[in-house]
Amino acid sequence: xxxxxxxxxxxxxxxxxxxxxxxxxxxxxxxxxxxxxxxxxxxxxxxxxxxxxxxxxxxxxxxxxxxxxxxxxxxxxxxxxxxxxxxxxxxxxxxxxxxxxxxxxxxxxxxxxxxxxxxxxxxxxxxxxxxxxxxxxxxxxxxxxxxxxxxxxxxxxxxxxxxxxxxxxxxxxxxxxxxxxxxxxxxxxxxxxxxxxxx
Length: 199
What we know:
This protein is of the alpha+beta class. The protein has two domains: 3-76, 3-Layer(aba) Sandwich (Glutaredoxin); 90-192, Glutathione S-transferase Yfyf (Class Pi), Chain A, domain 2, CATH 1.20.1050.10. 54% of the residues lie in helices and 8% in strands. It has ten helices and four strands; from the N terminus they run βαβααββααααααα. It is globular and about 50 Å long.
């Protein structure tokens, strides 16, 4: 059976959320969010960098969340969440799948400052710079979401799990209240049952 390796609070939530939206059967392996748990020889044999998410499906082993999303949609989607080659939304679908990581990388820099670096060694400059970059990467979505409910229009797709998780992460560090369309979008996303289960 398919297995997802996950840490609570980590970006693997986006893969977990997508699996719940798809309704496919899988086993969930929840690891502690610590170097000790993620660097065991057993886990490194599955995920060479000792990070989450990691998806194992028969002989397939994937450890990049964008690749996991594309793989799951290509192989398990029932037509709701994926935009296949030839679809008029295909290019937008691909762009938003990967743009989710652009947002998340700034959030990850702030997580490192908050969680993994001792308080006396944290950089005010890095925190200010990454917070600004994070805000701007989300602000770019505001005019799009002012005109439609989801990133591809009125239908929720897999791209909303990636971008939605990245906004969820960002909200731990920055104030997005000035981005009213983004905040309304976020409220729509967090009301979904699959999002709540993934939390």
